Amino acid sequence: MKPISKTATNVHESATLAVDALAKKLKAAGEDVVGFGAGEPDFRTPEHICQAAIRAIKDGMTKYTPASGLEQLKKSVCTRFKNDFDLDYTPAQIVIASGAKHSIFVALMCLLNPGDEVIIQEPYWVTYYEAIEMAGGVPVVINTIEENRFKVTADQIEKAITDKTKLFLLNNPSNPSGVVYTREELKAIADICVKYDLYIISDEIYYKLMYDGKEFTSFASLGEDVKERTIIVNGISKSYAMTGWRIGYTASNKELAKVMANYLSHSTSAPSTISQYAAIEALEGDQDSIEDMRKVFEERRNYIVSRVQAIDGLSCLVPDGAFYLMVNIEKQIGRTIGGKLIQNGDDFALALLEQEKVALVPCTSFGLPNYVRLTYATSIEEIGKGLDRIEEFVK
Ligand SMILES: Cc1ncc(COP(=O)(O)O)c(C=O)c1O
After folding, report:
1. 234 lines ligand 1 (CB under 6 A)
2. Greatest Cα pair distance in the chain
3. Helix (H, G, I), strand (E, B) or coil at 320
4. In this structure, what is the dihedral angle of CA atoms 302, 121, 148, 377, given to the nearest 10 degrees?
5. Domains of the chain, with CATH numbers?
6. Distance, CA 337 to ligand 1 centroid (Å)?
7. Of all protein residues, whose CA lies closest to atom 16 belonging to ligand 1?
8. Which residue's C-alpha comes closest to atom 12 of ligand 1?
9. Which long-range CB contacts under 8 A does 286-295 form with residues at least 24 apart?
10. Is 267 helix (H, G, I), strand (E, B) or coil?
11. Beta carbon of 39 within 6 Å of any ligand 1 atom
12. Hey, which of 16, 102, 125 would you mutate to test ligand 1's pocket, going by the most ligand atoms within 8 Å of its Cβ?
């Protein structure tokens, strides 16, 4: 038989989903596994949002919608942008897709020509690298260091720019580091992007999960010239505990939005109509439950950080947002634990899962082999139990 697509066969399995799948398999086999792997809130979708979906079904809202989403949902997105960031968008600039991951993919497909370079920073969310390649682009990865809180600087970006650079892809707050950029840092990056005529995709999916009273700056709010070349990616999955509903959205200039709408019209069409009605309620309805969830995440962050920092041989930065913690395991490299030689985060994660039944994600696939990622989207009790086991493992 003739070979199947080279682009498709080059795509790797998502490491985060793979660890999660293994942990679920062990759990199904009756093992007492503590899961720090999955990147999704453990909360149920708030009741008023579920009711909106049920209403939509009962009212017969079960037909196709326009490929780029319901006008009413686009208006709700515009209202959120106005209320949250004082940003003015019109519905024609909004494109609804099947999750933020899908929004990123479609934006890349519509922006890149073969060989176009996309600058990303390490540690990066696994999907970026793969999606850029799937869209025919070339990922250019900038290394960052813990001493600079894993932030990329405007200077580093400027040095990475070539005549093939098309865009800079930013994730703020970051998965996996939980780090958040200040307005000044973003402004310096934006100036470089404007100077070299780059697009920016700013993935702001975790923007509602901010801690210590820190303020979040949306990239598009850095000036009209910046807004024009920025594609904001957002969605309801993380902030509203709605991962399974599959709604993401972008805000961009009208020309790109139109191209993305055309692209969607021949691929997925619109996401589920029922989910779109639920998303309207999520974005426009009562936001108190969202703040309640954020507060719980903050308590968990404080607890998990204090536990990790108390373990001899492990360390971590204090994350400003999202629900991830990157743990530095450099001091474990070269050790043999339970008969297993630890050479990187992959070995650490596998040995920990086998010996202590704790699932976490090695950061190898995020570009940092000497780190592992823990998700604190799980109860304080589970976090405590898992950290007891990690402490025992490292001892
Ligand atoms: C940085 C980042 N962007 C986007 C997504 C995907 O969000 P969605 O579930 O809406 O596709 C995730 C999910 O893990 C993420 O971590």
Report:
1. no
2. 62
3. coil
4. 0
5. 6-44+289-394 (3.90.1150.10), 49-284 (3.40.640.10)
6. 33
7. 175
8. 101
9. 286/46, 286/48, 289/46, 289/48, 290/46, 290/208, 290/239, 290/240, 293/41, 293/43, 293/239, 293/241, 294/208, 294/209, 294/210
10. coil
11. yes
12. 125
Q: Tens-of-pLDDT digits for all 395 residues of the chain? A: 999 998 889 888 766 666 677 778 888 999 999 988 878 899 999 999 999 999 999 999 999 999 999 999 999 999 999 999 999 999 999 999 999 999 999 999 999 999 999 999 999 998 999 999 999 999 999 999 999 999 999 999 999 999 999 999 999 999 999 999 999 999 999 999 999 999 999 999 999 999 999 999 999 999 999 999 999 999 999 999 999 999 999 999 999 999 999 999 999 999 999 999 999 999 999 999 899 999 999 999 999 999 999 999 999 999 999 999 999 999 999 999 989 899 999 899 989 998 999 999 999 888 889 999 999 999 999 999 999 999 999 98
